[in-house]
Amino acid sequence: MAGIYLHIPFCKRRCIYCDFFSTTENKKKEAYIQALSKELELRKDYLNGEFINTIYFGGGTPSQLEEKDFKYLFNCIYKVYPINPKAEITLEVNPDDLSSEYVAMLRTLPFNRLSMGIQTFKEDTLHLLHRRHTAAQAQEAYQRCREAGFQNISIDLMYGLPGETLEDWQKDLQTAIQMHPEHISAYHLIYKEDTPLWKLKKAHQVEETDEDLSVSLFKELIHTLKGNGYEHYEISNFCRPGFQSRHNSSYWTGEKYLGCGPSAHSYDGTSRQWNIASLSQYIQGIQKETLYQEKEELDLNTRYNDFIITRLRTADGIPTHILKETFGKTLFDYCMRMASPHLQQGFLTLDNHVMKLTEKGIFISDGIMSDLLWVED
């Protein structure tokens, strides 16, 4: 099984924290949809005919597309690729795009999962972040999707927001829980260099959340969601039983995926490649049937490092027998030697040949992963 990721870069306006490739050049949308379909055709052999188990429309703001755009892309996908009849097909959406008419249109298409970018229910923070919706619009949009028949809805939340208190975060979590989504992704705000948010911080107009509060917010996230029936199946992701994101889970378990669109990444098991991060150059290249890409062949040590980083993020952890079979005795022994202090201190557990982070280990997961990575002398 494999996955397809389609990058839809268009936004009405950019959020101040975002460093993903996106553009407000919506006039190029028609040419882009044609180019994206052409790339799907040009790269039809990349996954070697494997059945497609997940399709993910990410962005940008994919809910900026119209019905004709979606139909054009789906016609291409289903013509060129073998699709699992039970494939998970996700669309990232912004709440303010979800009018009754738009949601009804989405129900006529193959989408069976929505991922809604809400971030917070605090009005002044939504305004600061340049989000286009209000808290009320987010809840109303969610309800419209539910009433239209969508039975698998994920919502995105952010914490560590400027001026946020523990009480603010508790209110956001309670509001989210009352909506009963199947899935919640929650990410700490990161101040990425050269974003408008970064510039506000440099000008001392906003401040990053201090480490102690960040830890308290993360603890509150874990305990509140687990206490309300959500499984903590990956560091930043929680779900009702049976509603893990199959697409994102495929990244963490090393499945192959094809990424189409500017800046989109692909992985075939032995190499990574990524498209140019320019809308104009991407379209021009595809029109000439030239793929402007970079490629990295992955040696054994790099694949070992990827395995450690992705597997240890999940509740399933690292199956040590697969580690040894895949990467050999030298890397296996190295991993176990580097893990030993963390096992002794209770940050990792090893049970039935599976090594996992403990709850207290999650709070220092970056350091643990770093210790287990292979570093060339």
Description:
- This protein is an alpha/beta fold.
- The chain folds into 2 domains: 2-251, Aldolase class I (TIM Barrel, Alpha-Beta Barrel); 300-372, Arc Repressor Mutant, subunit A.
- 42% of the residues lie in helices and 21% in strands.
- The chain has 14 helices and 15 strands.
- The protein has helices at 29-42, 67-80, 100-106, 123-128, 135-148, 166-179, 196-202, 211-227, 246-252, 279-287, 300-312, 320-344, 359-362, 365-372, and strands at 2-8, 52-59, 83-93, 113-119, 153-159, 183-188, 231-234, 237-239, 256-260, 265-267, 271-275, 293-297, 318-319, 348-351, 354-357.
- The strands form 3 sheets. The protein has a 9-stranded mixed beta sheet with strand order 7-8-6-5-4-3-2-1-9, sandwiched between helices.
Shape call = globular
Q: What Rg is obtained from the alpha carbons, in whole angstroms?
A: 21 Å
Physical arrangement of strands within the biggest beta sheet: 7-8-6-5-4-3-2-1-9
The poorly predicted ranges are none
CATH class term of the largest domain? Alpha Beta
What tags apply to this protein structure?
377 residues, TIM Barrel, 3-stranded antiparallel beta sheet, 9-stranded mixed beta sheet
Helix/strand layout:
Blueprint: E1 2-8, H1 29-42, E2 52-59, H2 67-80, E3 83-93, H3 100-106, E4 113-119, H4 123-128, H5 135-148, E5 153-159, H6 166-179, E6 183-188, H7 196-202, H8 211-227, E7 231-234, E8 237-239, H9 246-252, E9 256-260, E10 265-267, E11 271-275, H10 279-287, E12 293-297, H11 300-312, E13 318-319, H12 320-344, E14 348-351, E15 354-357, H13 359-362, H14 365-372
Parallel strand pairs: 1-2, 1-9, 2-3, 3-4, 4-5, 5-6
Antiparallel strand pairs: 6-8, 7-8, 10-11, 11-12, 13-15, 14-15
